[in-house]
Amino acid sequence: MSDKMGADEPKVPPKKFTVENNVYKGEVKPLSSDYKGLGELIWKSINKYKNNIAHVDAQTDKVVTYAELQNKVVRCALWLQEHGIKSGDVISICSNNHLDSIVPYLAATYINAIFNGWYEKMDLNTARHVLEQTMPKVIFCTKEPVDLILTAIKDKNCSPIVVVYGDYPGTIPFSKVLSGYSDSQMANFRYLELDDIKKTACIMHTSGHTTGMPKSVELSNYCWLMSVQDDNADEVVLWCASLYWITGVVMNIKAITTGVKVIIYPYYDAEMICQLIEKYKVNWLSFGTGATNYFLQSGVTTKYPLSSLQGIVCGGAILKAKTQEEWKRVLPHIHILQAYGLIEVAGMITLQLPWHKIGSCGTVTQNGELKIIDPDNGKTLGPNQTGEICIKSATIMNGYYRNPKATKQVFDAEGWLHSGDVGYIDADGELYIVDKLKDLIKYRGVQVSSAEIEILLHTHPGVLEVAVMGVPHPTDDEHPVAYVTIKPGFTVTEKELVDLVAKNMTDAFRLRAGVVFLDTFPHLGCGRLAKNELKAMAKKLAVKEADD
Fold first, then answer.
1. Cα separation of 371 and 263, whole Å?
2. pLDDT for the residue numbered 383
3. Which residue numbers delimit the AMP-dependent synthetase/ligase domain (predicted)?
């Protein structure tokens, strides 16, 4: 983590932001290095730490040093060049975490190609969409999505090279990529210098699984150099997010630039995570909000001392204050900290620290700016007034790849990025997330926050997970419906939850479309709720009600 956060720290350190006309500005910190590109930074960092352990496969205990990692990356870079990949070409990776998943990404930075991560559990429509958007020259993938990828390639009538981690008919095995290069070729290889630090280094996809088809975000070399500077090298961090997720990319780059050991484990298994914390003395976890909730609700944390663990940084959805308080009860020695950010700014724009209030997402980070506006008229709002969150940052995206229309829509004339998220900033400069504009439910013209209903339903002792959606209605716009899973050993009725909302909230918030109990919730690979699946269920519910 970028700030040391021990139990003996001052409660209220000096503020690192200023406020001017209700615009919150983080501390300005210019780029502290002379690196001309991400490839140069990675090349020199790996060589600097060549004798350190780079990766440990938690499932097999296999160890890879930075020197061994460099050998693989150079071989992959030579292979890419041999197959005509040049500066500005896109290579895509569709894989969970394993010892070789990072190799093509790093190789791309050495030859100034553009890295692009795909979600390994995407559906065929999404595969067609991202293929058409990015048009990669090479796709590296595991066996699980290869059939789907080959089908999408055929449907789109394009011809990228497909490389598979393993063996699969009609594709190139990754082992072949790493073979066949002489000692002299290896010794003579050098990263290519970059002529413009603002050129695109990678393309990340927005989380289309929750908001529709993903957009492709261009993040520059400069953005990454700014994002990873000045991080501590003496802390062990564990995450499970693949290179599709911004967390997976940021944490991998930070690990390389500080020479730390990465524990590779691809699954959100609470029991195994506890065992890994104990075995490798993990200090920090970086998880999605859903995975953080699951980790707590699993109950396994009480079986282990977890004495090395200092805290969990989470993001991606609202972490309820009740959940943070429960963590403090179960593991009082750790901090549960919320971050708020977007792929469009390469990660965090605010970070909650131990002295910030429970339920907030903390204050604006360095090189960032925040303001809250009225989405109807664009007026900047003051403290404790709810509106749309707008952002400026030194790590802001170059734009949406091959989509100038979407880029123009998200930025206003003054260069503010409109996040689509609803929140407010309190008198101390701490940000609170209320909802997404797209998740607000409209009942007879009144905007209803699904998140506020979810927070209330979470106070019921038998509720494990909850998501509230709007069911289309022919005369009322939408009716709220609650999807709920129940904790083992509890019995919860629909009437209990409907009455809970009716007694504690105004009429517009009532669960007019009722409660739907599910055995499990659909989740993405990062632990985040797959809202699109629930939205599809809500639409079917509307059709059923209309038929009835």
1. 38
2. 98
3. 44-401
Q: What's the order of all strands across the beta sheet hosting 90-94?
A: 172-173, 161-164, 138-141, 90-94, 114-118, 200-205, 216-220, 399-400
94 plus 236 within the same structural domain: yes
Closest CA to 297 of 464, 130, 475, 454: 464
Q: Which H or E run includes 164? A: strand 161-164
Q: Are 153 and 131 in contact (CB under 8 A)?
A: yes
Residue 29 lies in a domain: no
Coil/strand/helix, residue 432:
strand
pLDDT tens digits along 156-206: 999 999 999 999 999 999 999 999 899 999 999 999 999 999 999 999 998
In a domain, residue 392? The reply is yes
Same domain, 147 and 121: yes
Number of domains in the chain: 4
Is 383 in the same domain as 498? Answer: no
Task: Quickly state the pLDDT bin for 149 (edges 50, 70, 90).
Answer: very high
Cα–Cα distances in Å, from 193 out to 111, 113, 396? 8, 12, 23
CATH number of the domain enclosing 307: 3.40.50.980
Distances (CA, A) of 246 to 86, 219, 242, 257, 476: 24, 11, 9, 17, 38
pTM of the model: 0.82
pLDDT band at 6 (very low <50, low <70, confident <90, very high): very low
Domain identity same for 386 and 487: no
Range of the domain at 384: 357-434
When pLDDT is cut at 50, 70 and 90, the band that residue 7 belongs to is very low
| Rounded mean pLDDT, 427-437 | 88
